[in-house]
Amino acid sequence: MRVYLAGPDVFLPDPVARGAALKRICAAHGLVGVFPLDPLAGEPAAWAGLPEWQRIALRNEAHIRGAAALIANLTPFRGPSADVGTVFELGFMRALGRPVFGWSATSVSFAERTRAFLGTAAQEDAAGVWRDAEGTALESFGCLDNLMIDGAVASSGGALEVAEAPRWTDLAPFERCVARLAGMLRAGPAAASGDHAPPDQPTK
Q1: Model confidence over 113-164: pLDDT tens digits?
Q2: 3-class DSSP state of 176
Q3: All structural domains of the chain
Q4: What is the DSSP string of 101-126?
Q5: Rounded to the nearest 10 degrees, how much is the dihedral formed by the CA atoms of 107, 4, 151, 200?
Q6: pTM for this one?
Q7: How confident is the model over 104-113, as pLDDT tens digits?
Q8: How far apart, in whole angstroms, are the C-alpha atoms of residue 62 and residue 172?
Q9: How does DSSP assign 124-135, residue by residue?
Q10: Spatial distance between the Cα atoms of 66 and 61, rounded to a whole number of angstroms
């Protein structure tokens, strides 16, 4: 049962150690964690002539196709939202019809984080709609991140796990995702087939 471990963890000072820590948690629950930096078995020889960035993109898409599910680190990264590459990978797996789970080191809603990020540039208009300095509306559904991210997780039968903790050290919400995913996969194909009713709200 292979699970792709999406997230900005690859940018940490020691991404190899981080990947190993995530994989150990997966193994403890009977899963095989696949980290974005892992080599790809049988990588096409034709890729050797491509730019590095393109090889990385193709390799990660192949890793995702070869996994039964995806767990994404949705901790806000360089702004109020999750890492954009991670979000792409989550959507890629959702389009394959497989379960996607998410975890974050904050339970603060996307709307609250966006207002804090914008500071005084975020203002509430007479109709009660929050807008930025250009007058564009802020998404305010109380979701953990953009509604499409929360929606993908919910519709796939996955779950969002959160904890108010140091951003890059507390893996408790990740382990809760792994445990829930392992239970889903053990329950059989029907439980992991996607297009489920919305799960519980993000848990701490």
Answers
A1: 999 999 999 999 999 999 999 999 999 999 999 999 999 999 999 999 999 9
A2: helix
A3: 2-107+144-192 (3.40.50.450)
A4: EEEES--S-HHHHHHHHHGGG-EE-T
A5: -60
A6: 0.92
A7: 999 999 999 9
A8: 28
A9: E-TTS-EE-TTS
A10: 9
